[in-house]
Design goal:
With 495 residues, the chain is mainly β. The protein is built from 4 helices and 32 strands. The chain folds into 2 domains: 210 residues, no CATH class; 256 residues, no CATH class. The strands form 4 sheets. The protein has an 8-stranded antiparallel β-barrel with strand order 7-8-9-10-15-14-13-12. The protein is globular and about 75 Å long. The C terminus is likely disordered. The site of one zinc ion has 8 residues, from loops. The site of one zinc ion (ZN) has 8 residues, from loops.
Length: 495
């Protein structure tokens, strides 16, 4: 690390005149802690860039000034930025700028949807692919990153920042970007700049294990196991479980159906409107904790989705489980009383082309593709879930299960679905077993595996009749609102 002269390192803030010290040789900008102006280091001294907004409260074990070891290398967090998507209904996220003491190398550390990522800017910036070619699911070759799949395309802007930064993150300036994913956890971002003062950049990195961080504070980067906290519905005052205040974005009240966005790390809720009540109570109660396949999980959300095939409406039910900071979110999905355990896959791990997809060297054959809509939703979600939200859901069947791909115009999400028995789910959550598919197996035929994103369009009238009977029998003992609800069978009875 070069030392630089004291003049390089210390100067008055060009906005308010307060003393400003650059601790890190590689820092290109700093937010004045007195007047909140972003100040850039230039050949001619310090220059004002723009005022940053107040920081949003997003909980993290990292903070400006945090020190420790990352894979035995000494680091310090020099600053952070908070970024928001433009024209998309999502909450801001933050990235920490971390500097390795020995080399002065800067890394960006981000936590999203229950996973940790690092990226580095590729210097100098190579030529980026034309923005118009980028579509969710597009496969391409990128410098440094290699073969990748475009996972998300959008526009973003820096809203706030603090500390020192390895580049000039001009607040409020909108830049087109795309996130990509490659084999072996490769992850990165193409940022196209604003065509004027902000140059294009390529960031490449990967997903990492939070256990590789040792903070001097002794606090693990991976927070302790998730525990159920509570927040209050702004409409009915009901106490709602909240397990992931750092990543949760929307909550739908299980008592009154009020939809709220979660702000300031879960401290405040803002009511947005009402969601229709699901016609059935979730079989796994919201807030239920269990041990599922070696992982402690909490059931936090329930969704009913449907698709129309040849004039018939098919529905299936999904349970969102939070499995703690290192594993993130997983799903249980039920259709025709058959269950699937659904785990997310990085899009870059799967090469889909035409009628097949390649995953870990194996072939998965195209099975079906449907347009799937959210019909009912209740609980806590890591995205701004809405009734009517639609994705194109495609399935590929192969060794061990089904690959499910869900795509809309801005992103693609992949998951792997393996069959799981209702008995195993009942034991995991210590609840009564769900109705067994065995009773209906002679009628339902071979539905095979179905993903969280896909319906299996097998409509058997006998099943409907049996389910209506079940509904009538069980609805008598239905246990009122939310939590301790009784499973009353799939709602195949139409609208
Ligand atoms: Zn200042
Ligand atoms: Zn409520």
């Amino acid at each position: 690390m070069s030392q630089g002269s004291p003049l390089d390192r210390q100067a008055p803030c060009p906005n308010c005149g307060a003393p400003m010290t650059f601790k890190f040789a590689g820092a290109r900008a700093q937010v004045c802690k007195y007047c909140k102006y972003l100040v850039a280091r230039t050949d001619r001294g310090l220059a004002k860039v723009g005022h940053v907004a107040d920081l949003v409260e997003i909980p993290s074990p990292l903070a400006q000034g945090t020190t420790g070891y990352w894979d035995k290398k000494r680091f310090e967090v020099e600053g952070r930025v908070q970024i928001d998507r433009v024209g998309a209904s999502s909450a801001p996220w933050q990235e920490f700028a971390l500097v390795l003491q020995d080399t002065g190398d800067a890394y960006w550390i981000a936590y999203a949807q229950g996973r940790w990522y690092w990226t580095r800017a590729v210097e100098p910036t190579p030529e980026l692919p034309p923005l118009g070619r980028l579509r969710p699911g597009a496969q391409m070759q990128l410098p440094v990153a290699g073969p990748v799949v475009i996972a998300e395309v959008g526009r973003r802007k820096v809203i706030s920042a603090e500390g020192e930064l390895p580049f000039v993150a001009a607040p409020g300036v909108v830049t087109p970007y795309a996130d990509f994913s490659g084999p072996n956890g490769t992850f990165g971002t193409l940022d196209y700049g604003d065509g004027q003062s902000i140059p294009p950049k390529l960031f490449v990195g990967r997903q990492f294990d939070p256990a590789t961080f040792k903070l001097d504070s002794g606090q693990p980067l991976e927070a302790p196991q998730a525990k159920v906290e509570a927040c209050t519905c702004p409409n009915c005052g009901g106490s709602l479980p909240l397990v992931a205040p750092g990543t949760a974005e929307r909550i739908v009240c299980k008592y009154c159906g009020t939809i709220s966005d979660i702000r300031q790390g879960g401290a405040a809720l803002s009511a947005l409107g009402q969601a229709p009540r699901p016609p059935v109570n979730p079989y796994i109660p919201l807030g239920a904790e269990g041990m599922l396949r070696g992982n402690r999980v909490i059931c936090i959300g329930f969704v009913i989705r449907g698709t129309t095939v040849e004039g018939e409406r098919y529905r299936w039910r999904e349970y969102l489980l939070y499995a703690g900071p290192s594993l993130g979110y997983v799903w249980l999905m039920e259709e025709d009383l058959k269950w699937q355990f659904v785990t997310p896959l990085p899009p870059g791990e799967v090469q889909a082309a035409g009628m097949e997809a390649i995953y870990r060297g194996s072939r998965y054959a195209y099975k079906q593709s449907v347009s799937a809509q959210v019909e009912y939703v209740v609980g806590e979600f890591y995205w701004k879930v809405q009734v009517g939200e639609t994705v194109q859901a495609t399935e590929y069947q192969g060794p061990g299960g089904v690959i499910s791909s869900e795509r809309d115009e801005s992103e693609v999400n992949l998951s792997f679905c393996v069959p799981i028995s209702g008995q195993e789910i009942a034991q995991a959550f210590r609840i009564a077993p769900p109705p067994a598919p065995a009773a209906f197996s002679s009628f339902t035929g071979s539905s095979g595996g179905t993903g969280a994103g896909c319906a299996n369009p097998t409509l058997i009238w006998v099943v409907i009749v049996v389910i209506i009977i079940l509904f009538v029998i069980l609805s008598d003992c239905e246990g009122g609102t939310g939590g301790g609800g009784v499973y009353v069978g799939p709602g195949f009875s139409g609208k």
